[in-house]
Amino acid sequence: QVQVKESGGGSVQAGGSLRLSCTASGEGFGRYAMAWFRQAPGKEREGVSCITWSTGNTYYTDSVKGRFTISRDNSKNTLYLQMTNLKPEDTAMYYCAAHLIGSRWHSSVSWSRWGQGTHVTVSS
User: Fold this and answer.
1) What is the DSSP letter of 54?
2) Residue 100 or residue 15, greater confidence
3) Is residue 81 a contact partner of residue 20, using CB atoms and an 8 Å limit?
4) Contact call for residues 6 and 95 (beta carbons, < 8 A)
5) pLDDT tens, 38-51?
6) List of residues 6+ apart from 15 with CB closer than 8 A
């Protein structure tokens, strides 16, 4: 079973960039779809982006389209989220998710493996 751990969070000013990484351990990383979620204080966890394992198809929530890019390096067992033109509303704890068990990638209940999260703060 895959275990995942996020890194790369931090504090930036609006308009800045960050790259989050999610390193997976255990067998089968390359066979799992992966996703990034985020959760701001007082809000529900929301799906940010997803990448499939077979075709590498990518999906994004509308609010990050054109600004965030998800990618994966199966040889390094690592998932990435390149975030550019960051906005204060992007401030949240960002989580890596693996092993899609449901039909809706953007729903947190569709994923069975979670990291501990990495925090992103964007100041205006």
Assistant:
1) S
2) 15
3) yes
4) yes
5) 999 999 999 999 99
6) 85, 86
- Report the alpha-carbon distance of residue 109 to residue 103 in Å, rounded: 10
Write phi, then psi, for 8 (nearest 5 degrees). 105, -5
Q: Which long-range contacts (CB under 8 A, 24 or more apart) does 47-55 make?
A: 47/105, 47/106, 47/107, 47/108, 48/81, 48/94, 49/81, 50/100, 50/105, 50/106, 51/79
Answer yes or no: is pLDDT of 54 > 80.
Answer: no
Structure tokens at 8: 């790369």
Three-state SS across the chain? CCEEEEECCEEEECCCCEEEEEEEECCCHHHCCEEEEEECCCCCCEEEEEECCCCCCEEECHHHCCCEEEEEEHHHCEEEEEECCCCHHHCEEEEEEEEECCCCCCCHHHEEEECCCEEEEEEC
**Alpha-carbon distance 96 to 38, whole Å?**
9
Give the pLDDT of residue 18: 98
Closest CA to 39 of 48, 28, 30: 48
